[in-house]
Design goal:
Layout lengths: L1 H11 L25 H10 L2 H5 L18 H18 L4 H10 L8 H11 L6 H16 L6 H8 L10 H25 L9 H7 L3 H16 L9 H19 L4 H20 L6 H7 L3 H11 L2 H12 L7
Length: 329
């Protein structure tokens, strides 16, 4: 089956696509799978990882929303995967590689969304970026410290998926674009549902370019990338669409990301600051997985632990450490 996949890729993929047989390989050599390509195998490893399972209980934007239809970090990840696969399929790129990168891109994200990332970045002496932490998860932390031993191309795409990144493959670029398309559009939908925005408040210029509803905006973005990039050695939006997307992104940062649920954000900040301080002062209380790192770098070990937490787990640990229990003295 794997050889059939190699032949199909050679026959049908773009000359600019990353062929599975041309991977630069893994950090540690291992016996190849007879059925799956290395990129297919990476996708499966990510899906069955503990970090991937935890995404379902990590905040995207809104903390503990009153409703079942808000984005979580997991549903965002699936959304990015779907858009990335659509782009890869349309541009004859390696869909398996794009999917693996997309599924792994947020594995290192903190609880409480970007509030958690901002807090850890301010506290850790060497800083904290969720893209770097996602790579650390797959390289070091998963499988009880052995890591997932993913391919170079998937690791590169995970590390470079943010707007400032520079992925080495076009599949990685497709995921980076898919990430922005996904979070901007569905965060708009969530903000309107939560009452933080009204549809008529969106920038009129961006609405004119992309349309009013989520489906229209995503479809317009995908079609534009295809029209701009088909048969080319790059993946990008047209200048008009990119300017409109950047306008929406700036609008969301100004109106939603920095202000939505401000009181809850402040509570999350205080909670993570207290947890960080406690474990820096008591590294022996860290779970066993993180104690080896704590021997040489306590702040990094604490960030590893805190960023792995789901929202509920972080709240539970905070209560256990700082909230008096009934009958306690």
């Amino acid at each position: 089956m794997k050889e059939k996949t190699y032949k199909k890729e050679e026959a049908f993929l773009s000359p600019y696509a990353m062929k599975s047989c041309d991977t630069r390989g893994r950090m540690r050599e291992e016996e190849p799978c007879n059925m799956r390509t290395d990129f297919q195998r990476d996708r499966d490893r990510i899906i069955y990882s503990k970090a991937f399972l935890r995404l379902k209980n990590k905040t995207q934007v809104f903390f503990a929303p009153d409703g079942d239809h808000y984005m979580s970090r997991l549903t965002h990840t699936l959304d990015v995967s779907q858009i990335a696969r659509s782009l890869a399929r349309g541009l004859s790129l390696n869909e398996d590689l794009a999917e693996a990168i997309a599924l792994g891109h947020d594995l290192g994200h903190t609880p409480f969304g970007h509030v958690g990332e901002r807090v850890l970045d301010s506290l850790c002496p060497t800083g904290f970026r969720h893209s770097q932490q996602s790579l650390r998860v797959v390289d070091v932390l998963e499988k009880d410290g052995r890591g997932l031993n993913l391919t170079y191309e998937v690791r590169d795409g995970i590390l470079n998926h943010t707007k400032s990144g520079n992925p080495m493959t076009l599949e990685g670029v497709a995921v980076s674009l898919a990430d922005r398309i996904a979070y901007i559009n569905h965060d708009i939908e969530d903000a309107i549902r939560a009452g933080f925005l009204k549809e008529d408040e969106l920038p009129k210029r961006a609405v004119k370019v992309f349309g009013r509803d989520t489906s229209s905006r995503i479809n317009t973005a995908i079609c534009d990338i295809y029209a701009e990039s088909e048969g080319q050695p790059f993946v990008r939006m047209s200048e008009e669409k990119q300017e409109a997307l950047d306008l929406l992104r700036s609008f969301m940062f100004e109106r939603v990301y920095e202000h939505a649920n401000r009181l809850i954000q402040e509570s999350a900040e205080r909670m993570l600051c207290a947890l960080y301080t406690y474990f820096v002062e008591h590294p022996g209380d860290l779970p066993v997985l993180y104690r080896k790192t704590a021997e040489t770098d306590i702040p990094r070990a604490v960030c590893d632990y805190l960023s792995s937490m789901t929202d509920k787990y972080a709240i539970g640990v905070f209560k256990q450490l700082f909230v008096p229990r009934e009958g306690s003295v």
